[in-house]
Structure formats: structure tokens, C-alpha cells
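#random but structural
TW: two for the price of one
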Amino acid sequence: MLSYDELTPPERELWDAFPEGRHVDLRTGTPGEDRVTEGGQWGPERTVRATVIAVLLSGGNAPRPGAAPGLRLAGARISGHLDLSDLELGQALRIEECWFEEAPTLQGASTRTIRIMDSRLPGLDAGLARVEGHLDLSRSRVEGCLNLLNASVAGELVLNGTRVCVAKGWAVIADGLDMGGGIFCMHGFTARGGIRLLGAQLPGGLFMQRAHVESPVPLGRPGPRGVALALDNVVASTLNLSDGFTSDGTVRLRGARVSDTLTFAGAVLNAAPGGDGTALAGPLMQVTDFDVTCAQSPSGTVDLRGAQVSRLRDNEHSWPETVELDGFVYGSVETLEAVEATEAGERREVRRRRQSVAYRVGWIRRSPGYSPQPYEQLASWYRTTGHDDDARRVLLAKQRHRRRTLRPAAQVWGHVLDMTVGYGYRPWLAGIWLLALTLLGNLAFRTQPPTPVKEGEGAPFQPLVYTLDLLIPIGGLGQRTAWYWSNGSLQWLAHLLIAFGWVLTTAVIAGATRALQKD
């Protein structure tokens, strides 16, 4: 235990102020001298040992009856290692514009509200800490890892304007973080090294408007970057990554569950240099309202395989050249055509519109390879909204895409089905073919009379009925067997009409069967 005589003048001032929670300000009032970046040059008159702060927070100077103790310090250089590991701290801690010589440790501590604002820290280890209040690091510069692994914060985690920078590895590690309030990383927040929040519980949401995250450099070796924001298996009410949010690396949401809104409205998503080329990965995520109206097209793959979304909102900048959509399920789709900013700086939707079937099919075609599910999902949505014709167009596009994966013989038959009945989704094509062939035969067979098979027997020759008799393979109208042609070209025409009749009939049956089945 420190004795009062061992304390320096600034430490005695802090010691005396603590029982009543008075504010101790060691700043000079001169801007050049008070810059936190120059804190390493501050002398003894502005230096407080970390040990003194730890002793005070551990009950070293008992509060007076009726007073509200607390440590409130500004403009100090804090020397040594502030180690509060496993301590139970009953007083609030507020530090402003201070320069820490070493990274503070709150490993396993139980504390009230902690505010370390506008300060410089070499890092912060608060793994397993229990904060019964807010943890506020607003506008601070953390030049090392911010560790909140399996921590619990009853209030809010405030990182507005904070800069967390590491040379290698993750800038923020908060796997298993249990929040009572929201996480606010806005107004210029920067994480050079990426953020990891695997399995975090965020009932108050995560807000990262105008934030910038950058994927980490692998530990121990130079190499390609990868994930900038890892939110795998996160359970959250809202994930707001909008209005200028920029990611240089993958935003990964594998298995995340968002009960309200996941928004990238006005965001910029870039794949990491030298990474796997993925800008947004959300396989198996579950989201109520998914807004991907980005400011510009992502510069990497968007992976939504197996994701489930109640409402999808996109715009012309939402999708890159490659989009993984196999297993992606959505309840509705809206396309945001334009936005404008209000006087309060909020984004306001101007108009929504339903994109054309061709656009939506092109969206599906951005997915590599062939999978029937994205087509079935889109057709199901069109049917739900009462656009059955559009649903059939989508299913026809599915068959045309599938045809490319078949063997040559099957591709030829596919072309026949497409031209004759549109794979069963355009049965009226068969009627057009039948009408055209009937007119052709009727006109051709009128040019000269045929020869009867048996002279003086049978019905008179009728070109129209004869043509129909050739085209209809089942049954008979009594004309085809009663007449034959001495003219070779007309005889060949008769044979071709018989063949076309069989092809049309087979195509109609096959197309109707296919249309009634789910491929």
C-alpha cells in the first residue's frame, strides 16, 4: 500500500479528490502542450503512476459518508501498467485526454462505468470483464489490440471517433461479447486490423455509420488480407453498416441472426487485397429486413448461399459480377430507385419500383454454375405477388440455363422444346406452328390435284383437311390414305408434315408434363 508521503503533487491532488469524485485536470490550457500525441513528453508535473490509480479504485482512500467517490482525471501521463485484473471496482472511472505508457488490463474485473475518452492507449485488455454501466472509449487512439473477449457490458459500448490500429492480427477481438445496450462505432471510427465479434449477443444493435474497417495482416508473416468484420453467429436486433461505412476486406455474417434490420445503405464494400475476392459473405444468415443499397457495386463476390431474408431491398449498385444465390430465400424484393438526404442528414427513399424479369434473371445468372433453386425462389415470389406470367418467364429462363449443362443430344431436344412449346410455359407456340404448317400445306396442295389410291372411291380431295390429316398423328380424317402424289416435292412435303406432326405432339406432351412438375 502506498503512503501519502510517497505521492507526487499531481498524485496527491488525485488522491484528495477521489473520495468526493472531484475532477482533477492537469492540462495547461495551451493547445500545443496539451496535445495527447505529445503525452510521452509530459513531465513529472503531469505524470500519475498507474499504481496510484489502482490503489484508489481498490479502496485505498475510503470515501467520506454521503460522498460519491470516483476517479476523474484529465491531461495526465499515466506511467506504468494499470492492472485491475479480477478486481471488483465500485467507483466510476473517467479519464480524458490522457497518455498511457502501457496498455491497461481489466481482465476479469467487475466495474461500473468506464470512460477513457480522447486518450492514447497502447491497447486495452478487458477480456471477461463485467461492466455494470457503459464502456466509453470515444475519440481515443488505441495503438494495439482492444480485447473484449467474452466480456459483458450492461450499458453501451461507445467507440465513436475511436481509432484502433495494430501492425498485425485483429484490432478488436470481442468473441462472445454480451451487450445490454448498443455498440456505437460511428463518426470516423477506424479499425486498421479488423473487428471480430464471433457469437456476440447484441440486443441493442451495432451501429457503424461512416466507419472504416480494414482486414488484418496475418500474424507472424506478411501475406494477403482477408476478413475485415467477422460477425459469424452474431445475434443482434440491428446491424447498421450504412451511410459511408467502408470495408477493405470481407464483411462476414455466416450464421448471423438479425431480428430487425441489416443495412448497407450507402456503404462501400471492397474485397481485401490479395484475399479470396469476397466482399460480403452471409451464408446461412437470418435477417428480417436486408438492405443492400450500396453506394457503389461491391468490388468482390457477394455470398448469400442458404441465407433467409424476409424483405430484400437493393438498387443498381447492390450486386457485383459474381453473386452466390444457391439456397437464398426471401419473402419480398424491393428495388430502391433513388435516395436523397434530408436537412437532418438522414437518407430518405424517393421511389421504389419492381425490376423487370430480365433484370432479375440476369441477377441470378451472376451466380456461377447452374442451380434451379434461385429460379424457383424468384418464380415463387412472382406468383405470390400475382405476376404469374413473370413466374413462367423465370421458369423458362431456368430451363434455358439448365440446357447448357446437358449433353449435345439433350441440348438439341431442349431447343426443340423451346421453339415449339417454350418448355411447356409457352404452349401457344405449338398453335402458331400448327397454323403456319396448315397454311403451307393448304397452299401447296392446291397447286395440283393428287392421284387417288382407288379410282372412284373415297371422299373428294380437300387440301385443308388433307393437311390436317397429315399433321394429326393420332386418328385420321380419311384423306391421307386415299390420295398420293406423283409430284416428288409435294410427296416430300407430305412426309415432312407427318414428321412435324409427331414432333409437335411429342413436344406438347413433354412440355405439359414438365410444366406440371418441379424440376
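TW: number two ↓
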Amino acid sequence: MTRSSGVQQQSKQLSLFESDPPVGGVESLSEAFRKLYFHLYTNSQASRAERLVSDLSLLLLVKLSVEVNGGENPLSQFLSGNATSQVTLLPLLKRSYPNVVDPQDHFGMGDEALRESFRILEGVRLSESPAHVLGDAFQALIGPRLRGDKGQFFTPRSLVRAMVNIVAPQEHETVLDPACGTGGFLAEADQYRHEKSAGRGITGHLVGVDKDHDLFRIASALLTVTCGKRAKLYNLNSLSLDAPQVRDAQFDVVLTNPPFGTKIGVRDKDILRHYDLAHQWVEHKKGKRWQQTDVVSGTQDPQLLFLELCVRRLKPGGRMGIVLPEGLFGNKRTGYIWQWLRTKGRITALLDCPRTTFQPGTDTKTNVLFFEKFPAEPQAPDKIEQVRVAVAIHCGHDRRGRTHFADGTPYPDDFVALTKKGTAGWSRVRLRHPEYLVPRYYVDRELTGEEESLVSGAKLVSIGQLREQKVLTVRKGHEVGSQAYGTGDIPFVRTSDVNNFEVSVDPTKSVSEEVYNEYAPQQNLQPGDVLVVVDGRYRIGATALLTKSNYRCVVQSHFRIISITDTSVIDPFELMFALTLPSVKMQLRNLVFVQSTLGTLGNRLLELEVPLLHGKGPWTNRVNTFRELLRKRDESLALLRTMTGKEPEL
């Protein structure tokens, strides 16, 4: 769901629609909710943030009930101060939403704080606002701190819309979201069906399940307004297969973004024993096959259980779009997941999401899996697996959630361009590595016009091929342990010490001569060695050149050390320059797999293809200038160091 929405003033009330631009002087619904939240946090009698969210969900239900079902008299009576919320508002809620509001529900805030809350929302018309706008506002209201600890991160609407368009639910098809949150996927699926139905009736119902009571209440109210009786919401734990409301149901379409994270692992044995992916699996190296054992794991990440649940809930031939952490897509240890999935159906598409997609809520990198269940089980998986892949670089907001640049222009959103089938940005590829399903890994190298001219005539070769040809060697760095920090004057080079192709030194991390002598024979560092960052968060692909003035050091394990052994093919400066080219940087990005928040390039560095910029060519002057600048800078820095004394310890 999108992060913010505009507002228009009509008849002295705010009505929010997707196409409305922000109007000066009128705050957005999200901002109104934020104002409301902080007012209650400061002034209400409820001390816990979760209690405030519960109160706010009830408050919004009252507002919707009055607008849709009538009830102005009870609200007016309450606002006048002549009656309490317990006497006027709760009976109204229980009449309007008997399946949503429990008999024991009550407002934790004081009546005065509640009255002021209604005054803040006085100019807002909730019932005339699309469900996604209200969902966005509620998301802004509860914030990442209140839901992130439960692994609940709300999906940007442009991604929701792209997933719905790719899966394309038809007017007669049933749609399930087993972790529906505020109902964004279901509302978007219903809108899509209306747009595509050409006036035909919508017969397929929508089912949403969420075990969070506050989200269930909000989704129920919003989908009742927008989808009517087609929407059915349940306040249940979807993973409990014994729930009678959905126990035996199967659906044409499943669209979801389930909770994810190791911190919220499922430990209930009564749940785990029902899931194949909650059992332990063993790998048989010879056949490269995994086998399920009878041993149930003590805990399992919820996203894996939801993946299996969604596949089970699909009818034969049913389709699924599910958001999952990238750690599942590029980890050989999770190969059993993909083997299991391929016995149930076929992967139809993979969508690579930017790292900023769920920021600022979480830094976890995600991708989207699209899947189609076999019409009849079992079937043998395709030997040549071809799928559609696309890579989104931008998602409509930055890592802080800002949707516009300082000049007011919106952040680009690649999900919008990928919304419709067959648009540019999609390609069909063969999954040559059965356990590597990171979409960008399969994207071909692309050159810009300027770069194409610059490297014209240069041979393209991988780092691995150069190693096989003994043109260079590649080896790892080491970890010395924090106990060695500050024990001497020998630099311990870490990823944070590399900038602008040079190595800076943090004296607090320098090590002793004894530590240096322990690692020097293994690392065998020499002037001309190239350091490449292969692990970390944001520095992967950064490079530095060791020189006569700084090669006496110890290099961290997050680096690969490349030594050129045959300079008649390529020299260190030419390699360094090649690694700065846009197409090579994009290749590096495509080869990095993210586990939770940490990226790793590892041995996939050997797959990186670089142009051999040796000898005469269009690149000669540029490479020579690059070489000369780095040499002069190193000489100048070395001279400066001879002119300054050692820094005294404070």
C-alpha cells in the first residue's frame, strides 16, 4: 500500500481518492491519524501503545458506522457530554458489526480524549475513501514499532497492484489472503475484477484471515464498505489447520504478504507436525535430492509455513502471488523448499523487490514468488524450467518512507511500470541453478551507449576464467578477533576502511606484529593486490588497491584478495577501472544475495564478467588517467605521512 495520499475538500469534508493530488492547507488522512495517535498517547488514560491501537480501531469503526448505517444521534449525545461511550457508542458498534466487535470490547481511553478524537476526524469522510487509502492511514497510525515485532509489515500499494495484475483474478474466482492485515490485497483484487468484468457480475468471494484482532476489525469494516457481502473475514490463526471456518476450503487465487522473521518462529508442536516444511530434511549429495524425515523441528519461520499453507489452499490449477524474504531465494540450505514446491506445481514468475520496499519498517530484502498448482497431482517437475522475471530498482519511496524529493517530484516506482502483463521489464529465463531463485541473478548484462563505445573491441571474460587461465589468483581475508584490536600499529583493514579506491586506517583496530606474522603467510599481500568487498550491507563491490605504502596489513574476511599474475592480459589498474563500469556494478548487484539484512557475493564473484581493457582501444586514455590519478594520490599521501608525527593517545 502506498505511503501517503492526497485529499480534497468537498462540502467541508475530506474525501480521499487515488487520483486526488495533495491540496495545500489540508492535511492527508495519514497525517490526521498521526495527529490523532499522538493526541491520544499524550492525553488518554490508556498507557500501552497496543491498547491505543485497539481504541483507535474501535473509534474508526464508530466513524464508519455513523456514515454508512446512521447513528448520528448516539454520537451527538456522546459528543455533547450527556452520556458515556459505554452507553452510546459500544451498543452502536455491536449492532453495526456483530461479528467484529466482541461483547467484552471497551474503550480504554477516557471519554474526553475520545470526544477530542472525533473532533480531529470531523472533516474526514471515511466511507467515501477507497479501502487502500484507509489501510495506508491505519498503517501510518500504528507504525512499524507496534507491528514489526510481530513480523507484520504492510505492503506498498503499487506492489499489491502489480501482484494482483500478474495473477489476474477473474470475476468468478475465489481469492484468499491468509494474513490479510488491513485487507489491501483483497480490496485491490476486487477492484481489478470490477475493472475487467465489463459489467458482468462479480460472483467469486474474497476471504481474509488474520489473527491480530485490531487488524481483523479494521479489515472487516473497510472491506464491508468497499466489497459488501463478497468479503468474508475471520479472526483466526491461519496456520492452525483445525480452524473450521477455512479448514477444507480451497481457492482459485491466493495473494499474501505473510509475517516473516526468525524472532517470531512458530513453536507450537500441534501446528508444526502438520507441515512438511516444519520437518527436518536431509540432503543426498549424489543425487542432489532432499528427503523429508519424521523429525519435527522445534521451531520454524512463519513464512515457510505460510508458503505451504497457501499451496494447500489452492485448487488444482490455482494461482498464487506471495511476498517472501530473499533469504529463501538464494540459500542452498533451503533447497528442500524448492524441491517440495516443484512437486506441487510450477513457478511462473519471480519479481525482485528493492531493498527499500518495506523500509522504514524493516530492512529485510524481499522478492515475490508467483506459482501455479498442478491441475492434477502428482506431476513431474519441468526439466527445463523457464519463468518470467523482472527487477524493480525503485519502489516509490526512499528508506525513510519519503515519497517525494525535496523539489516535490515523486520518487520513481518500477512496480507501476511492471503492473500489466507483457510490459517492458519482464523477460523469460531458464533457471539454470535450481536453488538460486533470486530474480536479478538471471538478468542479462546491459551496456549504456557511452559504455558500449568505451569498451568496444574489448574481450569479455569472467573472474573465474581469468583464475583458471592463471592470469590472477583469488583468496579470502581473515578475522583476527576483537581481542586483537588496538594491540599494535599494523592496520586491520575492514570494509568500512575502503573508500575512493584507497585504504584508510582506524588506529583503534590496528593489530600487533605478532598477529600480523600469524596471518601474513596466508594472505601474502603485495603491492598491486586488489581488495574487493564481498560481504556486508552496502559496501559490496567496493575496491581498493594495495601499494608500497600500505600493503603491510591484515585484511578482513569480508574481502576477496585478487593478485594479478600475468600483467600482459590485465593489470591491477585496468581491473579496478573495469570494476567501476556501470554494467559491471549492476552485475555485482545482481550477484549479491541478501540473507535478512546482510548481503553476500562470496564465490559468485567468479561469475562476474569484466572487459579486458589492456593495450590500445577506446578505453586507453580513460584508463591511463585513472591509473595516473591513483598513483599521484598514493605518492602524495605517503609524503604527507612522513611529514606528520604519530597521533598521541588521549
